[in-house]
TrEMBL record:
Protein name listed in UniProt: Glyoxylase-like metal-dependent hydrolase (Beta-lactamase superfamily II)
Name of a matching Pfam family: Lactamase_B
Gene Ontology molecular functions: hydrolase activity; metal ion binding; sulfur dioxygenase activity
Annotated SUPFAM superfamilies: Metallo-hydrolase/oxidoreductase
PANTHER family named in the record: PERSULFIDE DIOXYGENASE ETHE1, PERSULFIDE DIOXYGENASE ETHE1, MITOCHONDRIAL
Keywords linked to the UniProt accession: Hydrolase, Metal-binding
Biological process according to GO: glutathione metabolic process; hydrogen sulfide metabolic process
Metal-binding among keywords: yes
Entry superkingdom: Bacteria
InterPro entries per UniProt: Metallo-B-lactamas, Mito_Persulfide_Diox, POD-like_MBL-fold, RibonucZ/Hydroxyglut_hydro
Residue ranges constituting the Metallo-beta-lactamase domain according to the UniProt record: 12-206
């Protein structure tokens, strides 16, 4: 098993490539599309670096895995699939997120809320095969209703892609104030992750390093239990929920939540062009945030 991580610097998001080198197959986890909110222009420079890496290795792309419908970056999954193929994977509870945001954005009846935009819908305990690597699905809601972690194992090691449930120990944990989020639920999801063996490598979806530290895509279960500022050992459920809810009340909405959510719940697809050939995204007024 190999894992290669690519930092999208604008959103501080990590895209990971998980590979069975012997079988020459791989999965891409959480690819990112470049997006300039000031101009509304998209780009593929960052995700093309990931695509070119996979091509250089000669690997077949089997899965494009989304840990959840991201609110801080636009998914590059559609671009990856167009160029490399692969099946697009997301947790089956994405349907709940689609229904919630279909109402917020007032999408018309053509918008599907059955998750049929995706290829594979995963549920807790299911297993995906990637060569000789088994990828076990772990349902970890709280940040959103649809978050999944993916535990990858072969004969040599076990790693887990945690999405937004956990960040580096000095950063803490995901916010829970989006529609469908819940701090108590997140606490129990995190406890499931921290029940993995201490030496399990955790691959992060984001890193927001404290001053003096460089970006890093990984941590371990042991490091989280010892030092996560929000949820290390000794912090109980009530303490976590009080901290998380108090902190969330002070946070602004993510910079790219409005374009990101409406694209990502549609499997990374932008709306169809209107009669002038231009695609448009909606901006709901006074519907999100405080």
């Amino acid at each position: 098993m190999q894992v290669h991580s690519f930092l999208h610097s604008d959103t501080e998001t990590y895209t990971h490539v998980l590979a069975d080198v012997q079988k020459q197959v791989c999965a891409i986890v959480d690819p990112v599309l470049d997006f300039d909110a000031k101009s509304g222009r998209t780009g593929t420079t960052s995700v093309d670096e990931v695509i070119e890496f996979v091509r250089e290795q000669g690997w077949e792309l089997v899965y494009i895995i989304e840990t959840h419908a991201h609110a801080d970056h636009i998914s590059g999954a559609a671009h990856v699939k167009e160029l490399l193929g692969g099946q697009l994977v997301i947790g089956q509870h994405i349907t709940e997120v689609q229904k919630t945001f279909k109402q917020i954005f007032n999408f018309d009846t053509s918008f599907r809320t059955d998750a049929s935009q995706f290829d594979i819908l995963t549920d807790d305990g299911e297993i995906l095969a990637l060569g000789d690597i088994t990828i076990t699905v772990m349902y970890v809601p709280g940040h959103t209703r649809a978050d999944m972690a993916y535990v990858a194992a072969d004969d040599e090691k076990t790693v887990v892609f945690v999405g937004d449930t956990l960040f580096a120990p000095d950063v803490g944990t995901a916010r829970c104030d989006f529609p469908g989020g819940d701090a108590k639920t997140l606490y129990h999801s995190i406890k499931r992750l921290l029940a993995l063996p201490d030496d399990t490598m955790m691959y992060l979806c984001h890193d927001y390093p404290s001053k003096g530290r460089k970006h890093c895509p990984t941590t371990t279960v042991a490091a989280q239990k010892l030092g996560n500022i929000h949820v290390k050992e000794g912090i109980n459920e009530a303490e976590f929920v009080e901290m998380r809810e108090r902190r969330d009340a002070t946070l602004d909405m993510p910079r790219l939540i409005i374009p990101s959510v409406q694209v990502n719940i549609d499997a990374g697809h932008f709306p169809e062009p209107e009669d002038n050939g231009i695609r448009y995204l909606k901006v709901p007024i006074n519907a999100l945030g405080k």
